[in-house]
Amino acid sequence: MLYGHGGNIRETARQVGCDPSEIVDMSSNVNPLGPPPGLIDRLHLGLGEVGRLPEVDAGASIEAMAGFLGIGAQRLASGNGTTQFIYMLPGILDTRQALIVGPTYADYASACRMSDVRTRLLSSREEDGFQVDPSRLEGALAGVDTVFVCNPNNPTGVLVPPEQIRRLCRRYPGVRFVVDESYFPFVTERTARSLVGSSADNLLVLISDSKIYRLPGLRIGFLYASKATTRRVREAIPPWSVNALAQEAVRFLCENEGETRRFVRSSARKMEEQRNAFSRALRRVPSLAIYPSRTSFLLLGLPAALRAPEVCRRMAQQHYLLRDCSNFDGLSDRFVRVSLQTGEVNRKAADALVEVLSS
Questions:
Q1: Shared-domain flag, residues 271 and 248
Q2: Are residues 14 and 71 in the same domain?
């Protein structure tokens, strides 16, 4: 298991000597505007369900989400967050050589290691703003049977145009492309369409309800794939992987489809506004690199004299928890990630960060 994710509020509070409620968590990539209205009330009403076993295969939730997505339920599996699928897929796909497009979320490599899968990292270049070079990606496919792409990417926020991935799927039918779209709901470009619904048999798409709906504690994830792959995943997944409250949350979101879609669109627009405002505030710091993002977070390249552990420590003293990116393959201790909150919190956090970076 990999340690070193964001969201370690209790440990940070212990270190700085405050109550966990005083820590502003800007290290965990969840929507600060969520959960959607009415969802928590629905979960309160559903608490009685914890006294009974949930549906063993989450079949009703799968049917509901398939209808919401406009796809056949035979191409959808449900699990205990997308992380469960990430760790299952190398074994299910009989992966021998994986390519990981980075710098990115470390669990793809961790999952491959646990299944004794060889991996190669194709790391995008800092001088290119961490944009993925399609020719480099295509050139790296030789000898590879599985590719992991986080899109938009964590921690860079970069979006690979989905049509580029569709084209690669067509050109390389013998390669499986695992595309993690956990942050795709934050994308505001109307021209960028999710890969869910694609007919490619070698495409697998991870879908998360944790990020956009702010439900990380419920662990709700889906996998979209070919019927044959979905059947293999369903056969391998342990019984009762999706708990009763998580299934209730899925039903609520899908039953209230209009309100849910409005919430997603509104959240994406508002986070784009917050991202732009936060970026403008940080431009007061000379030589700070602010990388363009399509998500609810920003990757920052620190000025040469500064290092991430010290910056994060000093921000924690002011009760702001940032993500030290030192343990991302392809990055270093010169990078931090900031997950945005709402307006006034962001303004104060930006002021505090400018002070830390300028002193």
A1: no
A2: no
Residue tagged 């393959």 (tokens): 329
For the chain, the domain total comes to 2
185 touches 264 (CB < 8 A):
yes
The pLDDT tens digits of the residues spanning 133-183 come to 999 999 999 999 999 999 999 999 999 999 999 999 999 999 999 999 999
Q: Is the same domain home to 252 and 132? A: yes
Strand order in the sheet with 76-80: 76-80, 220-224, 203-208, 176-180, 146-150, 97-102, 118-123
Do residues 14 and 158 share a domain?
Answer: no
Q: How far is CA 346 from CA 14, 225, 256, 337, in A?
A: 23, 38, 30, 14
According to DSSP, residue 209 is labeled S
Residue 141 CB contacts under 8 Å (≥ 6 apart), including other chains: 99, 147, 168, 172, 175
Q: Is 161 strand, coil or helix? A: coil
Does 273 lie in the same domain as 233? no
Tell which of 191, 226, 258 closes a domain. 258
The parent domain of residue 321 ranges over 9-34+266-358
What is the C-alpha separation between 272 and 277, in angstroms, rounded?
9
HEC profile of 278-334: HHHHHCCCCCCEECCCCCCEEEEECCCCCCHHHHHHHHHHCCEECEECCCCCCCCCC
Question: Which H or E run contains 274?
Answer: helix 257-282
Which DSSP string do the residues of 39-92 spell out, in sequence order? HHHHHHHGGGGGGSPPPTT-HHHHHHHHHHHTS-GGGEEEEEHHHHHHHHHHHH
Ramachandran region, residue 142 (left: φ > 0; alpha: ψ -120 to 50; beta: rest): beta
d(CA 267, CA 234): 32
Rounded CA separation 279/210 (Å)? 25
Interval 217-251: pLDDT, tens: 999 999 999 999 999 999 999 999 999 999 999 99
As a whole number of angstroms, the distance between CA 320 and CA 282 comes to 16
230, 258, 286 - which closes a domain: 258
